[in-house]
């Protein structure tokens, strides 16, 4: 083994310690790192860090390694104490010794040091999850940031994530954190300040449409930068009590082995929502470690640690039988054991521990139990009106009774275990907690960065609806600012329930009833809630108009935006109201954005002419403003609308003009522009190279800013891959998406996996495509066009697998109730696939012909505008219409050669070789059936050339070519056959 290098250290006690450690290693014969690790019970990576990392190691780790290589731990203890700042006064808490759990401890330790992704430790309350994570954290050289979910903060946005980041921030006064932020893109710090106000930045753009994407990307970028400077792992306890937004980030960040290693603990059965989350992340490759009860032998080991080596006969059996191997119960029962008494039942023991407390100790314990989270001593002192000395005495009394966490392990005041806090709360008489909740609410509200959700909960416990309403509104707005819609909905619904029934709200509520209803629409809209949202909107608009106010306009706009997909007419009404308010306020920037809301809603309602006028005004105003990003947005809106209305040249001109506008430091907007531009080019069936060229600036922004998990980043890449697929370059499409689809499909990568499934269909890997599509279909696609895209690929897979009836049923289910306008790029092609499936079914069962024809006709008529009509916006509409006609004729048993040849020529015009090959194959089949062998041969030869890269299509074409009779003899033709150039061959019937 090569020599281990010593870290560069200044002369002093730390240098002496490291030098002695390396000399001991040399004297031991330089054993390998793996050999040392096996003896010390840790990983070789940990041993390597111990020898080479400049950070002072934990004593427990140093002691184990010194022993493993034959050294005297007492000698190194003195060196280690000398290297520790301020001597023994600031020593870290002694390493925890736990009974059993050796295999589990090794798993957690290795994950913290060299893991990736998520490891979740599960088990019943008291099973030892916290003890295991604490022991593992103290035995690794990696910096472990720990935080825990809290019931009182379950509705606070990103509470768990912000807490664990705050722990990193506080480690060295923010120096490590500040250096990491310096390595991140410019958008990271302002975005992160939404959930970590300690950063001290302000002035966030409330109109930022990419705020959610920025925040997720900022957290990921920060963690990556932190771990690049220093090994980092996160321990997140009590995930069953954490807020949904934090769980959402964990799922997004770590599934698939990405990001810093995270170990979480979750109480089995703690909440249905958390259990569903665990099932989902487990399916997506997260590791789960379930802690079983301790065995009889391990309980004996725990009792020896607790009460010494001398155990009376029968003690272990009695304790293990009553505790069922749950370590917390064993610990509490062991404390109640006396020489002549049986262990008390745990419930009686917990209740008895609360008796005979001094008034001061009981007051501190009550504050800690009702706060249900660690509290700094000054906050506890204010909440109990105690002096410093009295509080210290009360803490000592509670620690001695094992009711509070040891102050050496936690400087904050916290109940030792949640079961103890539950027992305290359960023993309260009615209204006993009210004054404590009131004091906690007042004290916490006065801190530098209070959590409005936490303060609101304490005012709720205090029974003060007026104060609770005020803080609920603040909590709703904080959740909105923190981009946590689930938590936001909880607070707005509670605020509505608190609203006085007999009059207006207090003046200090900070919101009108109209705005409250609109905020509720924005946060609570979702499946099955459209009718309820409509009633809230009607009530809000019926209220007396408020004076022009920015908050009111913002509430109108937010409600309009979420209703655009489910109720475009109501969305238009709300946008009109917002425009009127902003006009009165003369807020030109917000006015342009509100016009963008209105134009989109008008288009969704099929009122394109009105949208045209709105966009004209939007462009005129934005051109006079000093905001290039806003004007670029308006140009993209104009380009999209012109393409929809068939004004192709005007639309492309607007898109090119938008592309010339540079907006510094806004990579998300660059990606958005690229996505819209490539969408337009796909609708126009532009060459694949033109699509790739339009995507290049956006993809460059993705690489520079590290925002590859941004949803629009994945869609932009998929647009380029889709253009390659349409051009017949399936290999090029595969090379784009394959590196990003090695894990299981999940929400953030659903479009990449959908494109990968499309590639698999073309490559003939139909079983793999079907499995992938099944996983994709379980994910959420909340836009009609995206749902149609999924059904399109599913139907293609079914048809090439020979399951036309399944494809037909799948299409029917996929478009049931859809009435969107025809500019979705998938609607026409989806109807063509339905006609193809129907024709395939009738070939096997002619009796179903009339029923299927009627079903197809109904599907065509259900859309607001016929997607197969001549005025349909998509450039492939003529080819789609020709294919639809040819498939319907096949369904009715009257297939005609000229229909299929005409469809092939239309597909040629838009550069779709695989669709053209399919049409020529159908035409060749008909020509063969009619005995026109020469024409059949020519059609199938051309089809074979165009079908390159599409394995299932090539297979059926080759079967048809094999059925063509041999070439007509030259004697029959009157002489030798002279082949014509391919370009001269004309396909005429």
Automatic annotation (TrEMBL):
<protein>
    <submittedName>
        <fullName>AAA family ATPase</fullName>
    </submittedName>
</protein>
<feature type="region of interest" description="Disordered">
    <location>
        <begin position="967"/>
        <end position="989"/>
    </location>
</feature>
<dbReference type="InterPro" id="IPR027417">
    <property type="entry name" value="P-loop_NTPase"/>
</dbReference>
<feature type="domain" description="Orc1-like AAA ATPase">
    <location>
        <begin position="99"/>
        <end position="250"/>
    </location>
</feature>
<keyword id="KW-0067">ATP-binding</keyword>
<dbReference type="InterPro" id="IPR041664">
    <property type="entry name" value="AAA_16"/>
</dbReference>
<dbReference type="Pfam" id="PF13191">
    <property type="entry name" value="AAA_16"/>
</dbReference>
<dbReference type="InterPro" id="IPR011990">
    <property type="entry name" value="TPR-like_helical_dom_sf"/>
</dbReference>
<keyword id="KW-0547">Nucleotide-binding</keyword>
């Amino acid at each position: 083994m090569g020599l281990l290098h010593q870290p560069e250290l200044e002369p002093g006690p730390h240098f002496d310690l490291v030098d002695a450690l390396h000399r001991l290693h040399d004297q031991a014969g330089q054993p390998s790192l793996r050999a040392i690790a096996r003896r010390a019970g840790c990983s070789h990576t940990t041993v390597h860090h111990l020898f080479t990392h400049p950070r002072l190691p934990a004593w427990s780790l140093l002691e184990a390694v010194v022993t493993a290589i034959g050294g005297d731990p007492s000698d190194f203890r003195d060196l280690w104490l000398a290297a520790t700042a301020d001597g023994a006064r600031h020593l870290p808490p002694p390493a925890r010794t736990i009974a059993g759990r050796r295999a589990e401890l090794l798993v957690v330790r290795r994950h913290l040091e060299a893991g990736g992704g998520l490891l979740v430790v599960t088990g019943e309350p008291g099973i030892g999850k916290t003890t295991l994570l604490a022991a593992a954290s103290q035995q690794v050289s990696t910096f472990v940031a720990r935080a825990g979910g809290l019931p009182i903060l379950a509705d606070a946005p990103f509470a768990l994530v912000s807490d664990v980041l705050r722990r990193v921030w506080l480690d060295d006064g923010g120096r490590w954190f500040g250096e990491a932020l310096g390595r991140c893109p410019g958008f990271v710090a302002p975005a992160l300040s939404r959930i970590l106000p300690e950063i001290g930045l302000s002035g966030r753009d409330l109109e930022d449409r990419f705020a959610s994407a920025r925040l997720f990307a900022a957290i990921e970028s920060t963690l990556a930068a932190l771990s690049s400077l220093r090994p980092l792992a996160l321990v997140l306890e009590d995930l069953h009590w954490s807020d949904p937004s934090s769980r959402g980030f964990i799922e997004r960040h770590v599934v698939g082995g990405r990001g810093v290693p995270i170990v979480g603990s979750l109480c089995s059965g703690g909440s249905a929502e958390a259990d569903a989350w665990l099932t989902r992340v487990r399916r997506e490759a997260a590791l789960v470690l379930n802690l079983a009860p301790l065995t009889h032998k391990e309980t004996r080991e725990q009792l020896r640690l607790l009460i010494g080596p001398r155990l009376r006969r029968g003690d272990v059996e009695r304790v293990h039988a009553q505790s069922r191997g749950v370590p917390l119960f064993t610990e509490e029962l062991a404390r109640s054991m006396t020489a002549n008494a049986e262990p008390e039942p745990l419930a009686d023991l917990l209740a008895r521990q609360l008796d005979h407390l001094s008034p001061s100790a009981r007051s501190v314990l009550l504050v800690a139990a009702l706060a249900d989270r660690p509290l700094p001593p000054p906050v506890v002192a204010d909440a109990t009106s105690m002096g410093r000395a009295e509080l210290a005495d009360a803490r000592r009394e509670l620690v001695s009774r094992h009711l509070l966490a040891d102050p050496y392990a936690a400087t904050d005041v916290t109940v030792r275990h949640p079961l103890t806090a539950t027992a305290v709360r359960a023993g309260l008489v009615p209204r006993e907690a009210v004054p404590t909740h009131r004091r906690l609410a007042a004290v916490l509200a006065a801190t530098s960065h209070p959590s409005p959700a936490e303060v609101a909960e304490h005012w709720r416990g205090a029974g003060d609806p007026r104060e609770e309403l005020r803080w609920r509104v603040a909590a709703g707005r904080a959740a909105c600012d923190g981009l946590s819609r689930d938590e936001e909905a909880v607070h707005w619904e509670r605020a509505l329930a608190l609203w006085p029934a007999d009059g207006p709200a207090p003046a200090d509520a900070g919101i009108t009833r109209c705005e409250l209803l609109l905020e509720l629409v924005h946060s609570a809209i979702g499946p099955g809630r459209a009718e309820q949202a409509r009633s809230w909107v009607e009530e809000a608009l019926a209220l007396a108009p408020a004076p022009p106010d920015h908050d009111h306009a913002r509430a109108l706009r937010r409600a309009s935006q979420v209703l655009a997909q489910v109720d475009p007419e109501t969305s238009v009404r709300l946008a009109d109201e917002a425009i009127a308010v902003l006009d009165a306020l003369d807020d030109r920037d917000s006015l342009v954005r509100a016009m963008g809301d209105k134009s989109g809603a008008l288009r969704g309602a099929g009122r394109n002419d009105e949208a045209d006028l709105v966009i004209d005004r939007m462009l005129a105003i934005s051109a006079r403003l000093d905001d290039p990003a806003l004007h670029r947005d308006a140009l993209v809106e104009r380009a999209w609308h012109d393409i929809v209305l068939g004004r192709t040249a005007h639309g492309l001109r607007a898109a090119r003009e938008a592309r010339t506008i540079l907006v510094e430091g806004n990579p998300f907007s660059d990606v958005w522009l690229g996505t819209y531009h490539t969408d337009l080019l796909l609708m126009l069936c532009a060459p694949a190279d033109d699509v790739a060229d339009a995507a290049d600036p956006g993809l460059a922004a993705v690489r520079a800013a590290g925002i590859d998990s941004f949803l629009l980043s994945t869609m932009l890449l998929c647009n380029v891959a889709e253009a390659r697929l349409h051009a017949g370059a399936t290999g090029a499409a595969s090379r784009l998406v394959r590196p990003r689809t090695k894990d299981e499909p999940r929400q953030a990568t659903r479009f990449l996996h959908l494109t990968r499934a499309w590639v698999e269909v073309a490559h003939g890997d139909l079983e793999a495509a079907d499995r992938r599509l099944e996983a994709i279909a379980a994910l959420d696609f909340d836009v009609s066009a995206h749902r149609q895209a999924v059904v399109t690929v599913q139907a293609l897979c079914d048809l090439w697998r020979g399951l036309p009836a399944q494809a037909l049923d799948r299409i029917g289910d996929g478009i049931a109730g859809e009435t969107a306008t025809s500019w979705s790029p998938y609607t026409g092609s989806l109807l063509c696939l339905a006609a193809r499936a129907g024709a395939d079914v009738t070939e096997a069962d002619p009796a179903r012909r009339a029923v299927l024809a009627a079903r197809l006709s109904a599907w065509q008529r259900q859309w607001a505008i016929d997607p197969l009509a001549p005025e349909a916006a998509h450039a492939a509409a003529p080819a789609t219409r020709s294919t639809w006609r040819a498939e319907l004729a096949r369904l009715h048993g009257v297939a005609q050669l000229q229909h299929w040849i005409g469809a092939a020529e239309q597909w040629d015009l838009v550069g779709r070789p695989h669709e053209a090959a399919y049409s020529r194959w159908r035409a060749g089949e008909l020509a063969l059936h009619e005995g026109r062998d020469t024409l059949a041969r020519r059609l199938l030869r051309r089809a074979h050339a165009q079908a390159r890269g599409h394995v299932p299509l090539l297979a059926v074409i080759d079967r048809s070519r094999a059925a063509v009779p041999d070439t007509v003899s030259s004697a029959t033709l009157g002489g030798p056959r002279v082949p014509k150039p391919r370009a001269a061959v004309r396909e005429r019937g």
